[in-house]
Model the fold of this input.
Amino acid sequence: MVADWLAPFLLLGWSLARPGVGTS
Done:
């Protein structure tokens, strides 16, 4: 399913958007 390979990119983008989440 599309979400299977799209999820990692969404998580990465969200982490970059919120430095606190990506660094901790």
Notes: Residues 2-17 form the longest helix (16 residues). The mean pLDDT is 77.
